[in-house]
Amino acid sequence: MKKTITFLIALALLSPLLAQDKTPPVPATESGEKNYTIPASDQGLPGSGPIRRYDWFAKLWEKKRSGWAKEVAIDQGAVVFLGDSITQGWGPTMKGAFGKLKVANRGISGDTTRGMLIRLEEDVLSLNPSGVALLMGTNDLEEGAEPEVIAGNFKLIIDALKKHNADMPIVVSLVFPSSETKKRPADKIKEINERYAAVVKDDPQITVVDTWTLFANESGDAKKEEFPDLLHPNGLGYEMWAKSLIPVFATLGFVETEGDDFTPEEGFVSLYNGRDLTGWGYLPTKPRKKPNPIFAVITEAESFDGKTKSSDGRYVAKNEKLIVTTPPSGRRIQQIWTTKEFDKDFTLKLEFRATPNADSGIFIRGKQLQCRDFPLAGPYFDLKNYKAQDWNEVVIKVSGNTAHCTCNGEVLEEAFEVPESGPIGLEGDRGQLEYRRIRILEE
After folding, report:
1. DSSP-based three-state secondary structure for 71
2. 426 closest CA partner among 265, 260, 217, 277
3. How confident is the model at residue 20 (pLDDT cuts 50, 70, 90)?
4. Across 118-274, where does the E strand assignment appear?
5. Range of the domain at 148
6. Using CA atoms, how far apart are residues 172 and 161, in angstroms rounded to an integer?
7. pLDDT of the residue at 17
C-alpha cells in the first residue's frame, strides 16, 4: 500500500512535466479510427489564445485533416507549408510555383496559431518534412489576441519543429499586411513580426523572409492590386510570394539544383569559378570607435581557396552562385574580397538576385556601390528595368578614378569616384543576395 501511494504521488508530480508543450494525440473513435474534430474546449490544450469553433470552421478543420491523414505516406519528406486561408488558397501543390519540388499544403482557412500548434504533430511532423514554411498570425488578431500571445504560440511551434529535427530548414514569412477594416491594424502586425524575429534571432536553422515590406503600402496596409479584399492575395500576390521564397529555397537546395550554363565574353576573366570560393577571402576590418554587434570584426586575413563556404558560413558557393546568406541575427555587416587587387581600367559585369528588402553592396577597389532590392531598400527607387526577386545585371566601367555603373542598362552612378587600386568586394547586411557570372575585362 505504501509503495502504491508513493508511486501515485510521484506520478502526480511528474505529470505536468510530461504534459508540458506536448500536442495531445488525436483521440480515437470507438471503431479505433482517429477523430479529427476540433477539441470541444480549451482545457488541457497547449498554447494560449483563440481557437475557432464556428460551424463552418469545425467542418473544414475535420474535412481537411481527415483527408490529409490518408496522404501521410505519400507526402513523406515534402516541404510542408503550414498556415491559414492564405496558404490554403495557394492550392494543394502551390500551383506549381516551385517546379518539381515535393510540397504539402497544410493551410486551413480561418486557423489561428493555437489551432496550428494543436494539429502540428499529425499534420506536419508526421510527414518528416525536408523543410517547413510558415505563415501565421493574422486570424488571431481578428479574434482579439495580442501580439505577445500570438508570438508565444509561434515559439511553441518553432520549438516543436526544432525538437523533431534539429537540421530541418524552417522558413518564416513575416505576417502580410492587411487593414484596420479587417481588424488587422498595421501597428499590431508590425509588433507580431518584431516578436517573431526576436523568437528566431541568432538561430541558423531558421530563415526569415521580409514579406511584410514586400507587400505593405506607405501606411503599412495591403494594396488592392495585390490583395483585393485587403486580406487574401490574388494571382499577382501569390506570384510575388513565390518569387520571394525561391531564392531561399534555392540556397537550401530545394529548387534550382542545376548549374548555370554560362561562358564569359571574349577577353573577360571569371572572378568566381562557380564551384568554390577560390580567389576570395576576408580582410581585417578597421577598428571602430564604438563596438557595434551588427558589424563583423575580422582580425586576420583569411583565404577561402578550395572551400565552398566562408569560415562563418555567411558566404556560400553553390550551383554557380556566390550567395550572401541571410544573417540569423537579422543584420550582420561584413565583406568578402578578391585576393587580387586591380589598378588598371576595367569593366566588371555580374548578375544579382535579392530577397525582399535585402541590402548588400559591390565594392569597387574598396569603394561601396549600393546593391540592394532597390524598389524597397533604395537608394535607386525609380528604376524601370529592375526585376524584383529575379536576376539583374550590373555593369561597372572603371576609367582612372571614376566608375560608370548601370543596372539592366539604367544608370546608377554616372561618375562614381573610386580609389586608384584595390580589390573587388561583396557585402552582406540584411536579407539574402546571390551573385553569379562575376567577370572582369582589364584594359
Report:
1. coil
2. 277
3. very low
4. 131-134, 170-173, 206-209, 269-270
5. 17-251
6. 12
7. 36
Question: Which CATH number fits the domain that encloses residue 147?
Answer: 3.40.50.1110
Write out the H or E segment, with its range, that includes residue 87.
helix 85-88
For residue 22 the three cell numbers come to 506536448
* Calpha distance 110→188 (Å, rounded): 18
CA atoms in the 13 A half-sphere facing the CB of 112: 28
CA 180 to chain centre: 26
Of 222, 251, 280, the one marking the end of a domain is: 251
Question: Which region, left, alpha or beta, applies to residue 19 given φ > 0 means left and ψ of -120 to 50 means alpha?
Answer: alpha
pLDDT digit string, tens, across residues 358-414 = 999 999 999 999 999 999 999 999 999 999 999 999 999 999 999 999 999 999 999
Q: How far is CA 222 from CA 182, 242, 378, in A?
A: 11, 17, 20
Grid coordinates 513580426 are at which residue? Answer: 193
First to last CA, the chain: 95
Number of domains in the chain: 2
pLDDT digits (tens, 9 = 90+) for 123-177: 999 999 999 999 999 999 999 999 999 999 999 999 999 999 999 999 999 999 9
Amino acid identity, residue 209?
A: V
pLDDT of 344 reads: 97
- Span 206-261, pLDDT tens digits: 999 999 999 999 999 999 999 999 999 999 999 999 999 999 999 999 999 988 98
Query: Which pLDDT score, from 0 to 100, does residue 379 have?
Result: 97
Closest CA to 293 of 321, 269, 328: 328
Which residue's C-alpha cell is 570560393? 277
Q: Are residues 427 and 287 in the same domain?
A: yes
Given a contact cutoff of 8 angstroms between Cβ atoms, the answer to whether 362 and 380 are in contact is: no
Q: Is residue 263 part of a domain?
A: no
Q: For cell 491523414, what's the residue?
A: 69
Helix %, strand %, coil % for the chain, to 5?
Answer: 25, 25, 50
Sign of the dihedral through C-alpha 254, 255, 259, 265: negative
- Residue 210 sits in the same domain as residue 327: no
Nearest to 231 by CA among 118, 142, 344: 142
**305 neighbors 282 (Cβ within 8 angstroms):** no
The CATH number covering residue 411 comes to 2.60.120.560
Is 6 a member of any domain?
Answer: no
8 CB neighbour count, 10 Å cutoff: 10
Task: Read off the amino acid at residue 193.
Answer: N
Decide if 319 contacts 260 (C-beta within 8 A): yes
